[in-house]
Amino acid sequence: MAQQITKKRLASNIIISITVQLISMAVSFLLTLIVPKFIDEYQYAYWQTYVMYVGYVGILHFGLLDGIVLRYSQYDYEELDKARIRSQLHVMLVFMSIIAAAAVVVAVVALDGVAGSTVILVAIGVLTKNVVTYVSYTFQITNRINRYAILIILQRVAYGIIVVILLACGVNDFVWYCVADLAGDIIGILVTAFFNRGMYFGKSFGIKPTLSEMKTNLAAGINLVIANWSAMFIVGGAKMIVQWHWDALVFGKVSFAFSISNVFLTFVSAASVVLFPSLKRLEQDKLPGVYKNIRGVMSPLLVSAMILYFPGCWLLSMWLPAYSESLVYLGYLLPIIIYSSKINLLTNNYLKAYRKERAMLVINVASFAVSAVVSCLGAFVFDSLETVLIGVVVTLMLSSIASEIVVLKTIRVRMVLPFILEAAMTAGFILCASMLDLWIGCAVYGGALLVYLLLNIRQLSGLLRRFKRS
Questions:
Q1: What is the pLDDT of residues 293-305, one digit of tens each?
Q2: How many Å apart are CA 374 and CA 391, to the nearest integer?
Q3: CA dist 360 to 220, 228, 295, 356, Å?
Q4: What distances in angstroms separate CA 206 from CA 83, 141, 195, one per listed residue?
Q5: In contact, 161 and 31? CB cutoff 8 Å
Q6: What is the DSSP letter of 378?
Q7: Which of 122, 347, 429, 441 has the smallest number of CB atoms closer than 10 Å to its CB?
Q8: What pLDDT, on a 0 to 100 scale, did the predictor assign at position 12?
Q9: What's the CA gap between 415 and 216, in Å, rounded?
Q10: Sign, Cα dihedral of 80, 82, 87, 93
């Protein structure tokens, strides 16, 4: 079995991941804040439509890759039965190719214009995105975070460079920006194949053992993939309903607001990449303390980060005046960084470490159902975009709280006041952002934030002292 990850190794992994996410953030900054300045609003909206749909092609492996993560996260690379895992890649590639080919045929025969182009591009993404996921998962579960870093850097930097070239050439066609995304995937896959060749090349299992292994992985991963994708569809479903009910311009501006929120979530991805394999290798009695420490730092940081909304709005309104309406939507949406971060970094990782995938499934499916009902009522009954957006935040908050309750019961920790304070700060932020003048709202939220931090000062001081001692 793999060795436990030392504090030094964990710290090194986190530093590497944060470095990767800084680079990723730079590309996200380019995509989110620079591209809309130089392409028209309709082309931006079409591009965001592609981005939305290609973001969900990962569901098509139906838990196969999640099953591999759950079953093999405790092994080092040298210990893996590479032929066994490699056979799963080959099965997945065949299945994904059939799906992609069918989608291309439908696009050519039944669709044209923007819709046809988008379907063909997403069909290609079915292959590239799932292979990238396979590669990144195999790096992560074997704790080769430096290799994972190379994959993400290659993928994101290649994407960014191609986008810069397109902007320099004055390209205003969304198709080429989608091609840039796919090209980044392909470059990352090809270069990192050198480090991961044991997971690609060599003898595979026979058909019967391959299908048996696939069945085991699907059984292990199906609950997790449904749980994860139900959580993603809390936001994604709302975006789809906005696209279906309102015109392309409104969708583009709402997508811009979601993109800004995602920039805030970048660093959470960095820590999440290294946390799950580390939790799998920790002794069970250490997990409650780790949970309280991470949560004790993360919540105040995220609540504090929301104050950046106010100066950020002032700057963005000058840089992108055509998207000033998006900043209003962002005022409703930004609190999702608190709850999405806790779900992605803490509760999901702990539920997976304790093999509570079924609990994740129930919570996330129920949350998705609530979000779908609220979004449909907001769009098709009340014709209110604000109702749809606030519904997303409230649903994520309830989902996060429900997940934490399960984790806290599992690790035998009691916690009530932090939930109340975070809900109060969320409501306060939305009221300050939507009902008050920009700088008055900033002052009021800043005052509330000061009170919140004072209420948490003892816990933060204790964490700081323990960090210095370690």
A1: 778 878 888 899 8
A2: 6
A3: 13, 8, 19, 7
A4: 10, 25, 25
A5: no
A6: I
A7: 441
A8: 66
A9: 37
A10: positive
Could you give the angle at which helices 207-245 and 385-411 cross, rounded to 10 degrees? 140
279: enclosing H helix or E strand:
helix 266-281
* pLDDT attached to residue 1: 47
Structure tokens at 274: 């290294």
pLDDT at 66 over 50: yes
Whether the predicted pLDDT of 437 surpasses 90: yes
- pLDDT tens, position by position, 98-142: 999 999 999 999 988 899 999 999 999 999 999 999 988 888 777
Query: Residue 85's CB: how many other CB atoms inside 10 A?
Result: 22
As given in the structure block, the two tokens for residue 417 are: 């006041």
The number of residues making up the chain comes to: 470
Cβ neighbours, 10 Å, residue 29 = 13
The residues near 38 (Cβ < 8 Å, ≥ 6 apart) are 167, 170
Nearest to 387 by CA among 246, 230, 228: 246
pTM: 0.83
